[in-house]
Amino acid sequence: MIDIHFIVNPIAGQGRNNFSESFLQDYFEADKYNITIKSSIYKGHALVLSKESIFQKATIIVACGGDGTINEVASTLVGTSIQLGVIPIGSGNGLASTLNIPRNIHKALLLIKKNNKIRIDVGQINQRYFFSNTGFSFSASVIKNYEEQNKRTLSSYVTATLKSLFYYSKKNKLNIRINDKTDVTDPFLVFVSNSNTLGYDMSLTPKASLQDGLLDIVIVPKISVLKMLYFGLCLLLKKPNLLKEAICYQSDSLTLYRTQGAFYLSQIDGESSQINEETLLISIQRKALNVLV
Ligand SMILES: Nc1ncnc2c1ncn2[C@@H]1O[C@H](COP(=O)(O)OP(=O)(O)OP(=O)(O)O)[C@@H](O)[C@H]1O
């Protein structure tokens, strides 16, 4: 028997997400599969539920939600032989689109049934994992403003972006030293990605691959508001390097050392996070996660 566990985020995307056992049995026959369905009831709960599923000897754990839910579930699966399945019912669904997992639930379930396994790289910031991307400064501010709106739609992203542009100059001062040599004061953006899309079909790192053992890094120093708007256009065109100040490169690691500022405001796979540590080692674990695609 195959033990397949579904961890559902009921509020992801448009919300009201619910999977019944009878619906899932149309795909996963009772004589071959033991189906378990769990629903998260608070932020971070999918991580607890997934750990419990590992303890219950699940063979496949399916994250039903967006990048935040995938992050919580997948973080418990790094380095194990358990397969991650994804039903992308989130808003942006960045990682699912990079993996070509369809948003159509019927097609996504059939894909899991096909049992086609790949191994993907996993990003790491000190002790935490990211699977799609992590960002500081502007990228983190957009996510913080987005979360404050309590609505997970594209228009909320646009509003959050405009708000971040407007308030950018009032943000806390941050100085960082990159890789022990480059000092950047108030960077506009530090963005580190494992995947080649941000969700909503936008990209800052179009050349990134989930299987190349490399992180794609974009650093933009302090720039004028006009240049920020221009950079927004570059993002829509998926060509961040059209902005001459943007430094875009690939590496297997990056160290950030905070020389001024009380903390890092970051976003990790689209979830806002305040990091108090002074030094951040951002690295990649090659092919450390099994995914069904
Ligand atoms: N019952 C719940 N109530 C409130 N928040 C929840 C609940 N269950 C999960 N969460 C949190 O909801 C957040 C958003 O989830 P998720 O990222 O899956 O959806 P999304 O934001 O719509 O999609 P995407 O990240 O792809 O844009 C995550 O931080 C998750 O921990």
UniProtKB/TrEMBL annotation:
One Pfam family here: YegS_C
Alphabetical list of InterPro entries matching this protein: ATP-NAD_kinase_N, Diacylglycerol/lipid_kinase, Diacylglycerol_kinase_cat_dom, Lipid_Phosphate_FormReg, NAD/diacylglycerol_kinase_sf, YegS/DAGK_C
Chain ranges of the DAGKc domain: 1-129
PROSITE patterns in alphabetical order: DAGK
Alphabetical keyword list: ATP-binding, Kinase, Lipid biosynthesis, Lipid metabolism, Magnesium, Metal-binding, Nucleotide-binding, Phospholipid biosynthesis, Phospholipid metabolism, Transferase
Protein name (record): YegS/Rv2252/BmrU family lipid kinase
Cofactors, names only: Mg(2+)
Record keyword Repeat present: no
Superkingdom assignment: Bacteria
Gene Ontology molecular function, alphabetical: kinase activity
